[in-house]
Amino acid sequence: MERKVKVAAVSYLNTKPLLYGFRDHKVMNMMELSMDYPARIARQLIDGEVDVALVPVAIIPKMKEHHIIADFCIGAEGPVSSVCLFSDVPLHEIKRIYLDYQSRTSVALLKLLVRDHWKLNVELVETTGDYQANIKGTDAGLVIGDRALAQRHVSPYIYDLAEAWIRFTSLPFVFAAWISNRPLPVEFIQLFNDANAIGLNNIPAVVAENASPDFDLTTYYTQSISYRLTPSKRQGMQQFLSHLR
Ligand SMILES: C=C(O[C@@H]1C=C(C(=O)O)C=C[C@H]1O)C(=O)O
């Protein structure tokens, strides 16, 4: 038998619906699952430490070979709630923006919006560890994932990046997709897709076994995140990637 497929997933609440169905699924006999934050799993997929990952789509241009293997993604057709620019002051008064080291796609999207949509003259600052405490005065911050859901209760000004992208392009946005760095057996791909769909078809069960002190998870899973990689999401993704080139 072929060796097990190494799969890496995002360790945020937004991935729980996609992973819910894997537990007792027979696809687990064919794979090993690990979890980390998006920038780390991006590195693991590029370096070949894993075969498939729910990676930030912004890293696609860095891959020698890539295959989108599933019909599911971390996307949005409206405000995504967990990818935002947080600030104490209105957008045009911001002087500096701290960038989230856990992100790849949202950092690229923020840079695009700053330049072409919002047209801001700001200093962009890379981070490597905890930086949310730096978000104060005219220093703003991009925060993603569960930490963004918490930051919503802290910062008075919240600019949702998916919402801004949709205003800018009239297209939905894809933050992350299941991508492999080599071709995989059709049987694996079919089972993998089947496992992804189970949680999405059972959102109340997914909500029942997870908890967020910061955000209503039913709303998050059914209205903020949009999980189906539809033709219009693929179009949004292509448009985003062509902006990156
Ligand atoms: C919507 C989100 O999408 C995430 C954003 C990513 C990025 O910016 O690189 C990568 C994976 C997604 O989990 C989120 O985490 O809040």
Radius of gyration: 18 Å
Number of strands: 11
Strand content is: 15-25%
Q: CATH superfamily of the largest domain, please?
A: Periplasmic binding protein-like II
Give an overview of the whole structure.
The chain has 245 residues and is an alpha/beta fold. The protein folds into two domains: 5-74 and 173-240, 3-Layer(aba) Sandwich (D-Maltodextrin-Binding Protein, domain 2); 83-169, Periplasmic binding protein-like II (D-Maltodextrin-Binding Protein, domain 2). The protein has nine helices and eleven strands. It has helices spanning 16-19, 38-46, 105-117, 146-151, 161-169, 186-200, 203-208, 217-224, 231-244; strands at residues 5-10, 31-36, 52-56, 67-76, 83-87, 96-98, 123-125, 139-144, 157-160, 173-180, 226-228. Strands 2-1-3-10-4-11 form a six-stranded mixed sheet. α1 (16-19) links the parallel β1 and β2. α3 (105-117) packs across α5. The longest helix is centred in the C-terminal third of the chain and has 15 residues, at 186-200. The radius of gyration is 18 Å and the shape is globular. The mean pLDDT is 97. The structure holds ligand ISJ. The ligand C=C(O[C@@H]1C=C(C(=O)O)C=C[C@H]1O)C(=O)O binds next to α3 and β10.
